[in-house]
């Protein structure tokens, strides 16, 4: 169990660092966030996150989710508990998110 938790936490930490670099702040503070899901605010501002969800699935093959209720079209939710996920997968997802942001005219990204 310890190995699984450590692996999940490494994936979460890597993803969250990448999201912050893309200017997509986390909804939940890291010190209380789950190791199996990350929720981040969408970017660019004003663009419904349902567009992000659709883009990363249709253009890059990643299945992520949007927000629910008061968070609908404001946040994205990314699960990272599959035993098949790797740091490389997270990097590909981050690249897909970066491509979405850049396709909406924001190009000042790392």
Can you describe this structure?
The structure is a single chain. The model has no long low-confidence stretch (mean pLDDT 93). With 110 residues, the chain is mainly alpha-helical. The protein has three helices and three strands, in the order αβαββα. The protein is globular. Helix 1 packs parallel to helix 3 (87-103). The longest helix is centred in the first third of the chain and has 20 residues, at 2-21. Strands 1-3-2 form a three-stranded antiparallel β-sheet, covered by helices on one side. The N and C termini lie far apart (35 Å). It has one domain (2-103): Aspartate Aminotransferase, domain 1. The protein has helices at 2-21, 49-60, 87-103; strands at 37-41, 65-66, 75-79.
How large a portion of the residues is in β-strands, by DSSP E?
5-15%
CATH topology assignment: Aspartate Aminotransferase, domain 1
Termini gap: 35 Å
Total count of helical runs of at least 4 residues: 3
Give the SSE order as H and E letters: HEHEEH
Features:
mainly alpha, three-stranded antiparallel β-sheet, 3 helices, Aspartate Aminotransferase, domain 1, single chain, 110 residues
